[in-house]
UniProtKB/TrEMBL annotation:
Keyword Methyltransferase attributed: yes
Location of region: Disordered: 89-165
Family (UniProt): Belongs to the carnosine N-methyltransferase family.
Top-level EC class: transferase
MF terms (GO), sorted A to Z: carnosine N-methyltransferase activity
Pfam families: CARME
SUPFAM superfamilies: S-adenosyl-L-methionine-dependent methyltransferases
GO BP, sorted A to Z: methylation
Record flagged with keyword NAD: no
Keywords: Methyltransferase, S-adenosyl-L-methionine, Transferase
This enzyme's EC code(s): 2.1.1.22
Name under which the protein is recorded: carnosine N-methyltransferase
InterPro entries attached to this UniProt entry: CARME, SAM-dependent_MTases_sf
Length: 429
């Protein structure tokens, strides 16, 4: 689908996408430079201290992290090998923007080393604010504004910020959560109750008829929950806004040919809170299932774009209406990404068919709270959210609290546990 909007909006969207691609491309020099600082710090120490640390294998660990970073970079470069699938033209004449020391770190480590499944509807519209659906504890995720260049000037490649790289590192951890054996325990805590609630709501429907019921998964991330729902036989559509998630999910769903095809090292970016080397350096194989193994005739798609713009517009595309057309909406770690939670719940209510079900699981880490971009932010308590849902026209049942982590390193000495709210809500009016 072609991009719509003003010329300025389209240009801003294309600039943002190019910056994301550049972040992927510059992962290796950025991460290697950070790791090389450890090497430099080591050499500032007294000889006796260095000898003691060497006896512990500290230098070997730094070298092993270099190799792991290069393995990650090889995978990330595969993910962005064909960015034109998203309908953006990238400038071929952009020069890499590497500081001299970053280039040196990259060169030091360089020597170390279709089956289409999900149809991607590209529905990105308007300016991008790059609001990632991240629930990491470090920060809320906001990034705004294009990077303009004089017309006719040869552009240097965008230099990613630490915030950009944090999103990319989070993407690697999301791959563990959604597409690895190690992530299964975390997935099961979140996805299994949601799938069970969905099946319970449609328990009178024979399995062979589930294809007639449409399920929407907003904030689909890397697509595993939506894939699982399609694998149950439902017609399922995921929706995601983050380019980091969209690039990685497209690759996993459409460009992987076998189980455990790729190996990544998602935990090598921090030396803190590691009880042993394995916590830092263990490899993670992905994917744990073959994404192309959905049953023949499965109806599974991903829509790229902003949830409110795509599903909340009253001026709908006649070829793909949404009002009253969805039998279920599953929101997992999603509703707190709202600027205005009232609008989110109104949209969910409007697009559900009468008697349709909304299954929710997640915390209330309001992503726009305290933003510096002058965006509005409404932050309610859990009780207020549930009261609001009832006022809008939902009957809430099956309420409980589920303790779960989110992209957690299971071997780390530090872990954040969410007391996530779970409920099933039926559209009654």
């Amino acid at each position: 689908m072609p991009f719509t909007g003003t010329d300025a909006q389209i240009e801003e969207e294309q600039t943002h996408f190019a910056n994301v691609i550049s972040t992927f491309q510059q992962y290796a020099p950025y991460a290697l430079y950070a790791n090389n600082r450890r090497r430099k710090d080591f050499h500032t120490l007294p000889l006796a201290d260095r000898e003691l640390l060497e006896s512990l294998g500290y230098k070997e660990r730094i070298n092993a992290v270099d190799k792991a970073i290069m393995t990650n970079a090889d995978f990330l470069n595969l993910v962005i090998a064909n960015p034109e699938i998203f309908g953006h033209d990238l400038d071929e004449d952009e020069e890499p923007h590497l500081d001299e020391h970053e280039g040196d770190a990259s060169r030091q480590a360089m020597h170390s080393h279709d089956h289409p499944q999900a149809e991607l509807h590209n529905s990105l519209q308007g300016p991008s604010h790059s609001h990632s659906h991240s629930h990491s504890h470090e920060s809320h995720s906001h990034s705004h504004g294009p990077h303009d260049h004089p017309h006719g000037a040869k552009k240097k490649r965008y230099k990613p910020s630490e915030h950009d790289m944090d999103k990319l590192r989070s993407t690697l951890k999301q791959l563990v959560r959604d597409w690895s054996v190690e992530g299964k325990s975390e997935r099961d805590l979140c996805y299994e109750p949601m799938k069970e609630a969905l099946l319970q709501h449609f328990s009178d429907i024979p399995a062979e008829e589930r294809r007639n019921f449409r399920v929407l998964v907003p904030g689909a991330g890397l697509g595993r929950l939506a894939w699982d729902v399609a694998n149950l036989g439902f017609a399922c559509q995921g929706n995601e806004f983050s380019h980091y998630m969209l690039l990685a999910s497209f690759y996993m769903l459409n460009r992987t040919a076998q189980v455990n095809q790729h190996t990544i090292y998602p935990y090598v970016h921090s030396f803190s809170n590691n009880p042993n080397n394995d916590a830092l350096l263990r490899p993670i194989a992905i994917p744990d299932v073959l994404p192309s193994s959905l049953p023949d005739g499965s109806d599974f798609s991903l829509v790229a774009g902003d949830f409110e713009e795509i599903y909340g517009s009253l001026d709908e595309d006649p070829s793909e209406p949404h009002s009253g057309q969805w039998d279920a909406v599953l929101t997992c770690f999603f509703i707190d990404t709202a600027k205005n939670i009232v609008n989110y719940l109104r949209i969910i209510h409007r697009i559900l068919a009468p008697g349709g079900v909304w299954v929710n699981l997640g915390p209330l880490l309001w992503h726009w709270e305290g933003n510096t971009s002058n965006d509005p932010s409404v932050e309610l308590t859990l009780e207020e959210v549930k009261t609001l849902a009832r006022k809008i026209g939902f009957e809430i049942s099956n309420e409980r609290t589920i303790d779960t982590t989110y992209t957690n390193n299971a071997q780390s000495m530090l872990g954040y546990v969410y007391h996530a709210a779970f409920w099933t809500a039926t559209k009654i009016i």
